[in-house]
Design a protein that fits this description.
The protein is α/β, with parallel strands linked by helices and about 475 residues long. The protein has eleven helices and 17 strands. The protein has one domain. Strands 1, 2, 3, 4, 11, 12, 13, 15, 16 and 17 form a ten-stranded mixed beta sheet that branches. Strands 7-10-9 form a three-stranded antiparallel beta sheet. A two-stranded antiparallel ribbon has the order 5-6. The longest helix is centred in the middle third of the chain and has 18 residues. The two termini are about 25 Å apart.
């Protein structure tokens, strides 16, 4: 069985003072420190462990070690929050875009307790290529958390930007690609070949678009019989992986929690297929339907991106000055389905499930381990202030006050989908994750998932939940009417 804990707190807001101390000293608290009475998120995370009955005999004592079943002293623990961008796509808001530091701090404390002061904690992610990593770290308060542990316990917390590149953009046009150090432990290539979810599409002459203008690179790594990913080594070689995602809708796959969040372990993002050129009638999922206007847009945009690849400054200026005119002709992305931003995207969920298999089964040399020998994994979802609508970076806040936790990404994401008022059967990223596979992501059906909560409406099987007991998130406009659960 797969228990998934859900806690609903009274305050739909976060503590504001890093390093986000607990609101009171608990018996197991390993520090003598000041407290932050506004940090209800800390209590909520602690309550998740109590609901899951971790180390139940020692609850209420200094010996309580709720993550002791998962973590051993001396091990390396990789924490991956959602660090997609430092702010909303159009404004300075950010608390509903990325995982909040108060949630991260509470998890770090219990990881430290399990390590007994011996081992390593790494916090890392691969944000959007144009994102400012230092500003993300600042807003999360990670430096203050890092300094606190160094001062109080002489314990080092490593913070790393997993990206190999940072793109300098202006007016939504990439002007420069800056090389970054990337993961200090390096990266590795993993070819899932016939075990990839893309193998179903082999032999159909698909042309994929990745994360950048260079479509040739994307399709070199995804063609018949070859489905290759470049991933950072730190999360792969870590003993334990803890996912700390934000609860959000997503324009390309419906929602983003744990499964889609694994894009964050990618080292080279342009190896990741995001959509397939064309419309369904021509074997693609870029557009909802084939049209002369769409064909013209595709021809213009693809040609423009090929020119921009040459980094010609004149071409960059022209692209910046004329891009708004293109939106006037073809429609704004916030109103028109393009780039696979709709329920018919048959590409991105495959990429996400492939990455999850790599995380759980890949060794440091890029080979895949035998089934049954998966990486130890745990997830805590920050949904205190979530995002609905045009996720993952341009939506609107949805104050739910919830946090969730579980030891399987598929189980946790299925509960998140139901909590959002979505039908997981209509979300390929979840529904297809239950299927039998050489490298399974979950080894049982939806009936094996056991939500546990003090809220009676949630403390029962998912099939028993009422739609009125969910938060009924507004989906991205390309998903409206296609993903919502029925009453």
């Amino acid at each position: 069985m797969y228990p998934v804990a859900i806690v609903g707190q009274s305050r739909n807001s976060y503590a504001q003072r890093a390093p986000f101390h607990p609101p009171r000293i608990f018996p197991e608290t390993p520090f003598a420190m000041n407290v932050d009475e506004t940090n209800e998120a800390y209590i909520s995370v602690r309550e998740l462990f109590l609901l899951l009955k971790y180390d139940e005999p020692n609850v209420g004592t200094a010996a309580w070690n709720p993550l002791g079943w998962l973590i051993k002293p001396g091990e390396t623990i990789f924490l991956k929050p959602n660090m997609i961008a430092e702010k909303h796509y159009y404004k300075e808001d950010w608390e509903y875009v990325i995982t909040h530091g108060s949630v991260i701090r509470s998890v770090i404390d219990y990881v430290f307790i399990a390590l007994k002061g011996e081992g390593r904690i790494i916090i890392g992610d691969s944000p959007s290529t144009e994102a400012e990593f230092d500003e993300i770290v600042r807003r999360m308060g990670l430096k203050e958390i890092q300094s606190f542990f160094r001062k109080e316990k002489n314990f080092a917390i490593e913070i790393i930007d997993l990206r190999d590149e940072h793109w300098i953009e202006k007016d939504r046009v990439v002007l420069e690609v800056v090389k970054l150090p990337g993961d200090p432990r390096g990266k590795l290539s993993v070819d899932l070949a016939g075990h990839s979810m893309f193998v179903e599409l082999d032999g159909q002459s698909k042309q994929y678009y990745g994360a950048f203008y260079d479509t040739k690179e994307t399709n070199q790594h995804h063609r018949d019989g070859r489905h290759e990913y470049s991933v950072s080594k730190s999360p792969i070689v870590a003993d334990v992986f803890i996912s700390l995602p934000k609860l959000k809708t997503h324009k390309k796959c419906g929602l983003t929690v744990n499964l889609k969040g694994l894009v964050g372990i990618s080292a080279l993002k342009n190896w990741l297929p995001h959509y397939t050129f064309g419309a369904p009638a021509t074997g693609g999922d870029q557009f909802e339907r084939a049209s002369a206007k769409g064909a013209l847009e595709n021809a213009v945009v693809r040609r423009t991106k090929q020119v921009l690849l040459r980094k010609n400054p004149v071409a960059q200026i022209v692209a910046r000055k004329t891009k708004h005119l293109a939106y006037k002709v073809f429609g704004e992305t916030e109103h028109v389905v393009r780039s696979g931003n709709w329920y018919g995207n048959n590409t991105v969920w495959r990429m996400a499930l492939d990455l999850n298999r790599i995380l759980l089964y890949a060794d440091a040399d890029g080979s895949m381990r035998a089934t049954g020998n998966t990486k130890r994994y745990f997830s805590i979802v920050d949904g205190i202030v979530a995002m609905e609508g045009n996720g993952p970076v341009a939506g609107v806040p949805k104050a739910t006050g919830v946090v969730l936790a579980g030891a399987n990404p598929v189980a946790v994401d299925a509960v998140c989908a139901r909590l959002m008022g979505f039908d997981y059967h209509k979300l390929a990223i979840i529904a297809r994750a239950f299927e039998s596979h050489r490298f399974p992501l979950i080894d049982a059906g939806i009936e094996s998932i056991m939500p546990v909560s003090k809220n009676a409406a949630w403390n029962r099987s998912l099939v028993e939940w009422k739609l009125s007991d969910t938060f009924r998130f507004e989906p991205h406009f390309g998903w409206k009417g296609k993903v919502e659960a029925e009453s």
